[in-house]
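Narrative summary of target 7.
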Amino acid sequence: MYRTEPVESYYTGWLDRPHGHRLYLEQSGNPNGIPVLMCHGGPGGGSSPFQRTLFDPQQYRIVLFDQRGCGQSTPFACISHNTTAELIGDIEAIRQLLGIEQWVVAGGSWGSTLALAYAQQYPERCLGLILRGIFLGRPEDIDWLYRPGGGASQLFPDYYADFFAPVAALKGLDILVAYQQLLQHPDAAIQLQAAKAWSLWEARVATLLPNTAMRDGALEPESALPLARIENHYFLHHCFLRPNQLLEDVAQVKHLPCYIVHGRYDSVCKMENAWSLHQTWPDSVLTIVSNAGHSASETGISRALYDASLLLARRLGDPC
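Modeled conformation, tokenized:
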């Protein structure tokens, strides 16, 4: 039965990684269940107890972690030695630490990018995938959300004006380069002001209907700064992926079951992303939620993800 209250974690721990990074991780659900790793969004968004509600805790051993520089991981908002390849290495290190032979890999938004990239590199370690709000990391996907003339800026011109305001004086610079100058400025107050504008833009467009709590949370320094700094870092480097890498490498994972959930009115990650992935991976199961945008917190999205976890558990068989 779907539950809106998260189960308690039965394990929390830390994993020391090269170059001073320390990762927070936790486990909840059934210790003898199907292992599932949840990759949070952003990059830089951090994990949350809510993510435990997306899987049946009686059937799944739920593993959450905070990626480099965000959540409870340290150093805070750090972009040094923070790349997709290093995150994939972190995931493998977590799997080995926890003694897991194979697991389901799940993720939403940027988490779908990371889950796909990991699975394509380590398909033998994966039982299947559950993906939400597909972000393929292509130049056009970054342009859609951040650059003037992108789709989101035309859907929400008033919100985009607020997003653009902090860099308006930096004429002649690409908007991501301009934000980089502010987010890496020596003055912490300038960093935070830019981070709040960046984070608020995303929160405003992430749900079909306005979500006041999400917008208020976006302005908290402990969430805004790592989200903005790390996202800006990744998107300036094209997510450290080859152009169209995730679609070109689907052949590596086509044999695995995959469930895709995407909101019909997703303005952060356009629905074409999910459609293109599904067309490239015909055996995947695509659920389009007709009354939702991007956020996993929207009821239709969270229920569809939970239902996907049940369907995948049935395909994999009872682990107990």
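The chain has two domains: 9-137+241-316, 140-239.
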